[in-house]
Specification:
Blueprint: E1 3-11, H1 17-27, E2 31-43, E3 46-52, H2 55-68, E4 73-76, H3 82-91, E5 99-101, H4 119-126, E6 132-133, H5 137-144, H6 151-162, E7 169-171, E8 181-187, E9 192-198, H7 208-221, H8 226-242
Parallel strand pairs: 1-2, 1-4, 4-5, 5-6
Antiparallel strand pairs: 2-3, 7-8, 8-9
Helix pairs in contact: 1-7, 2-3, 3-4, 5-6, 7-8
Length: 270
């Protein structure tokens, strides 16, 4: 079985972060290994506390996984400080694997998950290593300075992001407008590819960015091209959002194993 490694923060509510990454990767046919960068106290209503792990512990986790397990792709999520970004980049030096960078900056509830002084480190050190970077419109705007309020602006931001070093950029359009459709824009350095799907009317979208980036990483680990991985990831996340779970009093999580409903594999079905 192919292996994907996620390097991200923990979500005690289980809907985002490391927990969502592992579920998404396993659901997309790969074994998930993990490196925790921070522990967050959060639920569907928001983030109440964050504790960053010591840099040597983060590095030790990466070294432990890569020294023993044959990893086929890596995904990064919450890297909340410049120090963590530098530690992760240094630990990955010389590692030639597909890398998906999800630039986690703000939680669904609006809590800052990346310090403002770490944005430069993200741009200058991590993005040049990325096979693909997957920001939402707000994150892309913070990274590029381009206000994303149209398809043309999303294309401009995707091009600007690739200019920072990654092989490709996927600017997600879920936060743009309130129409019946959502369009994500991919730029691979040579061409633009637009992916359009129906907007799903649901509040249960906690962890969608983590889930999509992890699904893309899983497909890259399985040998798919970037365009194929994005196509597969978007199909998966659409199903997971449509089956979103009304857990808690806020933004519930997506259903990572929605395709097993009615299969007889869940205890409730037997």
């Amino acid at each position: 079985m192919p292996v994907a490694l996620t390097i991200a923060g923990s979500d005690s509510g289980g809907g985002a972060g490391i927990q969502a990454d592992i579920k998404s990767m396993q659901a997309n046919g790969v074994f998930a290994a993990s490196v925790i960068t921070a522990v967050t106290a959060q639920n569907t209503l928001g983030v109440s506390a964050v504790h960053e792990l010591p840099l040597d512990i983060i590095t030790a986790q990466i070294d432990a996984v890569l020294s023993d397990i044959s990893v086929d792709a890596i995904k990064t999520g919450m890297l909340s400080s410049a120090g963590i970004i530098h530690a992760v980049v240094d630990a990955l030096a010389g590692v030639a694997l597909p890398l998906v960078v999800d630039p986690v900056m703000i939680s669904t509830s609006g809590h800052a998950l990346l310090r403002s002084d770490a944005i430069g480190a993200l741009r200058e050190r991590l993005l040049p290593l990325a096979t693909i970077v997957t920001p939402n419109a707000h994150e892309a705007a913070l990274l590029t300075g381009i206000k994303i309020d149209s398809l043309a602006a999303a294309r401009a931001a995707a091009r600007a992001l690739v200019g920072m070093g990654p092989g490709a950029a996927l600017v997600k359009g879920g936060h743009v407008g309130d129409g019946d459709e959502v369009t994500d824009v991919l730029f691979d350095g040579e061409r633009f590819v637009s992916f359009t799907a129906a907007r799903i009317d649901t509040p249960h979208t906690h962890g969608t960015g983590c889930t999509l980036a992890s699904a893309i990483a899983a497909s890259l680990a399985r040998g798919h091209t970037v365009v194929e991985a994005v196509e597969r990831g978007r199909r998966y996340i659409s199903g997971a959002i449509a089956a979103g779970l009304p857990i808690g009093g806020g933004h519930g999580p997506t259903h990572h194993f929605y395709f097993l409903e009615g299969s007889g594999l869940f205890p409730a079905d037997t």
